[in-house]
Amino acid sequence: MSENETKSIQDSDVQLGAALQNAFASDEPSEGLKQRVAWIAERHDNPVPKRPARFRFIRATGALALLVVVLGGTLAWKYLFGRPGETAIQLIPADAALVVTLDTTPSPAQAPLFLRLKRALESAHIDSKMNDMIKGAVEDASSPISAEIRPYLTTNFAFAMLDMPRPGGHDNGQPVVFLAVNNAGKVEELLARSGRHVRQSGFAYYRLKKDDQCAMVVANYLVLSTSPSILARVQMAYQGRLGTVAGLREYQEARAELPEDATLMVFVSPSALHELDGEGRKLGVTPFRDTRWMAVSSTLRNQGLVFDYRAPVTPGRQPRIQQMAQAPAIDMAAYKQLPSGAYGVFALSDPASYWDYLASMVADDAKSRGQFDRGLHEFETQTGLSVSGDILPALRGRTLFAVYPNSDDATAHPEGLIVIDDSNGANPAALVEKVKTWLQRTTAKKGNAGARFIPAQQSSITVWHLDPDSRAVLGDTIGSILGGIMRDEEGPNGAPHTHEDQAKRPAAAKMSTPTPVYAQVGNSILVATSQAMLQRAIQVHQGLVPTLAEDPAFTAMRQMARPGTQGILMVNLAAIMGRVEPYLKDWMKDESVIADDIVHVFGAPNTGLVASGNFDGQVERGSLFLPLDYDRLARLIKAGMDQGTDIAGHNGENIAEDRPVIRK
Amino acid sequence: MNRLALSRWQTRSPEPEDATLKQGAERLTASILQERYLACVYRYAARRIPQRQEAEDVTAEVFAAAFESLHRLKGQAGPQAWLLGIARRKVADALRRRTRRRETLESEMIPHGIIADTNSQSVGPGPHVSIEDAEARKRMHELVAALNPDQAEALLLQYVDGLSINEIGAVMGRSHEAVNSLLQRARAAIFKAGQGYFLGVEEVAK
C-alpha cells in the first residue's frame, strides 16, 4: 500500500469518526440520575446489616399472607362489585398524561350512604332539576345524538389526556372520554344512525355530524375523542396490542394506596408533572422534579368526604429530603401543651425538616440556585441569624399553632397561641434570646432606647413581657407603618379619607395592635397574642385546666388522621359555625331553615376538617377529611338552584321589559 | 462534511483512566465505578432510547445490575466494556418492552431500534445547530440505519464510544476477527453509500 493510500484511509477514518461523533452526540446525564446512581452505589458499598434469618422468615411469611389476602380481596372485589369508571383504565394507553375516573357504584359499606344520598337528592327534587338542566344544555348544543344516547349512559366515566407524538415537535395532549353505557348494542345503533361510519387503517369509528367528535363503542364504553388516532390507540389497547395504564407497575402501586371504593380518582403521569415543572421553572421552583405517578382520590363516607393523596419521590431526590422521613409522628404529648376549646390547630413534629424539602424544590439551574442563596445570605446578614446554626436547631421540636375564641369577649377577634417545644433536642429558647437581642438592637437604631423585655417568674415558668415604654416604641413603629398603609387606602365608596379619619386611624391602629407575650418553660417557648391567652397556656403546664388532648372534638378529629402523621391541621368547623350562627340567623331572618342548614352542614358537633400527611423516605402521603351532612347539603344545593332559576327568570323579565319598542 | 464536526472528532479526549482500576477488580467499589463510567453508559443508552427518562431508567438499571455482579468483573476487557455489555442487554430489553407497549399507528410511530429518533431531545446539541449541521447529522443517521444492526453497533462502539476492537468483542460477545470483519464491512458500506458525503474517499469505498 502506497503512502498516499494509507493517508487517504486515515483521513477517511478521521472523517467518519467525526461525522459519527457529531451525529450521535448526546446530552450529559442529569443531576437527578447522578444522585440516583450515587445513592444506589452508596447503598451497595455500605449495606444495611441483614436481619436474622428468623425475622426474614417471618417477614417472608407475612408478605406471602398479605399477597394472598390482597389477591383474594381483589378478585372478590372484581366479581362482586362492578366499577365501570375504574375498569376503563384497562383501555387507556400507557403513555396517558392524566387519568380521571368516576365511579358511583357503591361498595357494601357505602350502600346505605348512597341510598341516603339518592333519597336526599330525590326529596330535594335535585335529580329532576339536574335532568332538566342537562336536557336544556343538550338542546342548546343542538346535538340530537347526545339526547338520544343519554338514557343509555350510566354515571360512571373515565377521562384521559393522551400524548400525541408528533414528528419534529413536542407531544400534544389529546383528551379522550370513556362513558360507561348500559346497552352497548343500542348505543352503536344510534351512532350508526346519527354519525358517518369511517373505516381507516383497519379500525372503524363514527364521525358525528354536528360535532367535531369521533366516537366508537368498545366493550361497554362509548369512547369519544376529536382525534381518530386516539380512538385507534384505544382500540389497540382493547385488543392487547398496546400496553395500558392498568399494566403499569407505578400505577398499580399508586392505585393500591387509594381506597378501594374511591369515588373520584385522578392520576397524573411523570410526563404531565414534567410539564408542570416547566411552568414552575419560570418561578425558579420545580416541586415535581423526579416525581412519578401522583394520585389523588375522593371517597364518599358516612360522615363526609375523604380525599387521599400519594406522590412517590424517586431515588434521585430522596437523599436530599431524608431529614423529613426521620421526623417523628405527632404524639399525644403534643396536644397536652395546649388548652382545650380551640377553633383549630396546626401541628408539625419537626418543622426544620421541611427546610430540606423547600430547598430541594428550588430549580436545579444556576440562576435559581443563585437567587435562593443570595436571598438566604441577605436574610442572615440583616438579622444576624444563621438559618443552619440558629433557626433550624430551634425548630427540631414539635411546633403547634392554635386559634381560640377570645376569653374576655366572645364577640372580639380570636386569639392565637404558638408552642415550640424542646422535643428532639430542640432549643427554641436560644433562638428567642437571639431574636430579642436583634429586636433591641433594631429599635435602638431608630433613636429610641430599644425594646426591653421584663421577666416575671411563675413557679418554674418565666413570663416575658415588654415594659410600658418599649410597648409604646413598638406600638409607634407598628402604628406608623399601619397608619401609612391606611392613609394610602381610599375611604368608603372610593372617596379619600377625611382629615379627621386620617388623624384617628394611626391611633386606632396602635390601640388594636396585639402585643405578643411569651413564656419560657424549660427550653420550650409559648407565644400568645394576649396576656390572658398566655395565662391559659401556662395553666395547662401547671395542670390547672383541661388540655386539647382531652377535648372531645379534637379527640374525634384525631381519629380521622393518617397513622404516623408528621403534620396535621384540625379545624373545629362545628365550633366556628356555632360562633357565626347568631349573625347568620340575624342576616337571614326570612330564611331561618336555610341558615340552620348552613350552620349545621358540616355535621354534628365534635367533627371538623382534618388534613394530615407523612413522608416515609419514598412516598409522600396525605389525606383530608371534610365532614358533611348530606341531607342539609342537598337542601342547600336545591335552594341555590332555585335562587339561580329565580334570578335567571327575573333577568329574563327585565330584558323583555327593557327591550326597546320599534315603532313603525 | 462540515469543519465543526471534524474539529470535534480531532479534539476528542479518551476516557480518564485510574491507576486503581488497572490493578484489578478487587479495589473497584460501586462508587468508583459509577463516578468513572456513568456518563459513558448514559450516553450509550441515550443514543439508542429516544426518551430521556427511559434512558435514565435503563442507566440506573445497568448500574444496579453491575453492582450486584461486581465480583464477577474480570480484568480482561476492562470495566467500561463490561458495563456496556450489560447496557447492551438492558437497552435491548427496554426496546422490546417499548415495542410491546408503544405500538401505534404508522403515522404516529417513532422510529427506534439501534438508531435513536433524530427529532428526539436526546440526540444532538439542540436547536442552535445550523441547518447544514442538522442535514449532515440526518444523513449520517440514514447511512448508519441502512447498515446491518451488528455492523452499526460495532461502528458506533468504535467511533462514538471509543472502544478498542477487543473491548467491542467483549461487549458484543464476538471474537477479535469477527469484530474486525464487521467494522471493515461497515466502513466499506458506509463509504460506498455516502460517497457524496465523504469527499475524496471513493477510492477507499472501491
Key structural traits:
heterodimer, A: 664 residues, alpha+beta, 24 helices, B: 206 residues, mainly alpha, 0% strand, globular
Helix content of chain A: 40-55%
Strand content of chain A: 15-25%
Oligomeric grouping of the chains: heterodimer
> For the CA atoms, what is the radius of gyration of chain B?
18 Å
What share of residues of chain B is helical? Answer: 55-70%
Largest sheet of chain B: none
Distance between the termini of chain B: 20 Å
SS elements, strand count of chain A: 20
Q: Return the average pLDDT of chain B rounded to an integer.
A: 70
Rg value of chain A: 32 Å
Counting DSSP H or I runs of 4 or more residues, the number of helices of chain B is: 10
Structural class of chain A: alpha+beta
Q: Characterize the main sheet of chain A.
A: 20 strands, antiparallel
Estimate what percentage of residues of chain B fall within beta strands: under 5%
Structural description of this entry:
- The complex is a heterodimer of chains A (664) and B (206).
- Helix content of chain A is 47%, strand content 20%.
- Chain A has 24 helices and 20 strands.
- Chain A has a 20-stranded antiparallel β-sheet, sandwiched between helices.
- In chain A, strand 9 and strand 10 form a beta hairpin.
- Chain B is mainly α.
- In chain B, helix 4 crosses helix 5 and helix 7 packs across helix 9.
- The N terminus and C terminus of chain B are likely disordered.
- Chains A and B meet through helix 1, helix 2, helix 9 and helix 11 of A and helix 1, helix 3, helix 4, helix 6 and helix 7 of B.
In brief, what are we looking at here?
With 664 residues, chain A is of the alpha+beta class.
List the helices and strands and how they pair.
The complex is a heterodimer of chains A (664) and B (206).
Chain A: H1 3-23, H2 31-45, H3 53-80, H4 84-87, E1 96-102, H5 111-123, H6 126-140, H7 144-149, E2 153-164, E3 172-181, H8 184-194, E4 195-200, E5 203-208, E6 214-218, E7 221-225, H9 228-238, H10 249-256, E8 264-268, H11 270-281, E9 294-301, E10 304-312, H12 322-325, H13 332-335, E11 344-348, H14 353-361, H15 366-383, H16 387-394, E12 399-404, E13 415-420, H17 428-445, E14 453-458, E15 461-466, H18 468-488, H19 499-512, E16 517-521, E17 524-528, H20 531-541, H21 552-558, E18 567-571, H22 573-587, H23 592-600, E19 609-615, E20 619-627, H24 630-658
Antiparallel strand pairs in A: 1-2, 1-8, 2-3, 3-7, 4-5, 5-6, 6-7, 8-9, 9-10, 10-20, 11-12, 11-18, 12-13, 13-17, 14-15, 15-16, 16-17, 18-19, 19-20
Chain B: H1 3-10, H2 19-22, H3 30-48, H4 52-68, H5 79-101, H6 131-145, H7 149-159, H8 165-172, H9 176-193, H10 202-205
Helix pairs in contact in B: 3-4, 3-5, 4-5, 5-8, 7-9, 8-9
